[in-house]
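Hey, quick one: can you model this chain's 3D structure?
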Amino acid sequence: MSNTDLVLDFSSVSMADVALVGGKNASLGEMYQHLTDAGVRIPGGFAITAAAYRHVLDEAKAWTALEETFDGLDPDDVTDLSHRAARARRIVYDAGLPDDLRDQVLAGYRDLRERYGDDVRLAVRSSATAEDLPEASFAGQHDSYLDVAGEDGLLEAVRRCFASIFTDRGVHYRHRHGFDQLSVALSVGVMKMVRSDLASSGVMFTLDTESGFRDVVFLTASWGLGENVVQGAVDPDEFYVHKPTYEQGYRAVLRRRRGEKAIRMVAAGASGTRNEPTPEADQRRYCLSDDEVLELAGAAIAIERRYGRPMDIEWAKDGLDGATYIVQARPETATSQSATTLRRFVVDGSAEVLTAGRAVGDKVGTGRVRVIADPTHLAEFQPGEILVATTTTPDWEPVMKTAAAVVTDRGGRTCHAAIVARELGLPAVVGADGATTALADGAEVTVSCAEGETGRVYAGAVPFHVDEVDLSDLPRPRTRLMVNLGNPALAFHTAQVPNDGVGLARMEFIISEAIKVHPLALLHPERVTAPGDRTRIATILRDHADGASYFVERLAEGIGTIAAAFHPKPVVVRMSDFKTNEYASLVGGAAFEPAEENPMLGFRGASRYAHPAYEEGFALECRAMRRVREEMGLTNVVIMLPFVRRLDEADLVLARMAELGLERGKDGLEVYAMCEIPNNVVLVDEFAQRFDGLSIGSNDLTQLTLGVDRDSAAVAFDYDERDPGVKKMIRLAVEGCRRNGIHSGLCGQAPSDYPDMAEFLVELGIDSMSLNPDSVLRTTQTVLAAEARLAGPGT
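Sure thing. Here's the predicted structure for all 795 residues.
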């Protein structure tokens, strides 16, 4: 054989060379050649080819022994598989390295020393020739070695990489995906070691890993070397960047979540690597700046554009030069292959929550718990059980494929357990701290990942069902069908339901769940009287510049996430509509809210916004809205004012908004009002002159038209949105909007609950209805039938 193809520099390989250098090395070469000019940094290095691997086995005459080793393999016999794989690894390792290959490897090493200095450290990574293909990811199946130094260290690492082609997990994975054990060869990549042990590293995807939503880059990060993130040993920081607005020139992090990052992996000289506790100060801060997140997102977008498909990318920041590098990129192999059928798991019951963590996927699974302390106990696992572990590694994959669900103490949504669970279609809850002690062996539990980004493990078998619909040919009605949504964690999933945007995004959900503190308590913590509340506020703000920046950041990211999920469709965001008792229940809120006998009719909605008692809080809300529109570039956001009682009140609030930089009509800003007070209907022509649309809140409009407290069980029998008087009010409102050329919509509960109410709205010619997500598909069919009936035969 020719010796010229045993070692190749990254500058001379591309994706056309997968058969020669494996997917990992081919991808590094592709990016090194074509994306460096676009600002994507790739460490220099070289590939030891698959031909070199075969040359090793040819020279050692090892093929026959390997064939005998795998003859009669039963991949489901974990013990037998382990014995055979160990024997195969020994055969490959003992084959050594022929002199010609050794010489070429050391020549490549000398080149790297000339480029980076004599003390350059190396990363030596395996790259299988069937690896990182779109239909099968071999990620993590073979070994890699970090912080390798010296000629002897490099040659030893290469031998160990070659031998790792027959890890237990690699043998099992190849069998599961239909690859012959000896047909897959191994290439080895040798590259400059990025000193992320002195900084940070992680993984990013060019889509949302749970929903498959394509318009974001999802990035995870932790201190030290990246193995902890991949293996799920840490709870990493998480960031989202919205791709469409990034490409329009906006530079803003869409959303972030700080992980605990309790340990970090660092280089340990000749002994390789080790984990150490992360200093508390570093646990409490993000390990990337916004500028670094955005730079990495730009690299991810460029890589995705080059490959033409969603990508799974590993990155590392060098603690010596401060730069970020891409160290691996492969096609994303699980979420991006979703079909056109929408399947939604819905939990129908409730039970005690035994533990909770980060949800992976959106499914539900029930089974009996099996806690596995370490890989030596894997043989005890029975198919259909719930696998519970501190973390998982690729060695666990043979049993994971038989599990009903997976729960781990540690890990984020890009850890090994999460990636494999997605590929296998399993529900998984990762980072559920204490799960291995909270869940008892043999106990029946239900693992739910169908309730947003928090995954829950319930005691017992909780009932659930699956809604399924083929989206490929579902027609769209003339009437715009939008969704009601307050929880940003559900936004990417909900956006996949056929829709025309968001008709009601509830700001108060974000305030109560993500902020938790009364806005005025954040601005004036000294006025908070409850000692416990003051302590909680101080704890929340200890890592933020001040209360105002904390409120604006959290609120903007929540609203921005919803707006990005549905971009460029309209997202109508209602400014805060808490009642005083609800505001008072926020942390510190009791010091700022009056006690009212009937908060439903009290100091709420627009009446608060320009009032001295809340004007500072409203200013924070407006700052957040400006950030969403101006810094994030999400100009699809429409602002809506709730409970606008009088025309003078409308004028006052609109003037105050203009002072705060939210002038109606400027930069395309539309402002709607809720139509939920009889005065809004009586004076519909006058209100229509002040707003771009009216959204009928049928819940409050029913309450005030019929004089029924909608929170009172005693008079619930008199509360009916279909009462003739209520329907007449709705008719007058819709006709008034049409007469004045503004948008008409309805965002109450009625059309979600009553098909005849949806038909009535179609007959009125309303522009849009905003529905609960779980009723959109059902109501779509009702609306399509009503529109066809109104159109008459032959249309």
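One thing worth noting: The chain has four domains: 7-193, 197-335, 339-469, 474-791.
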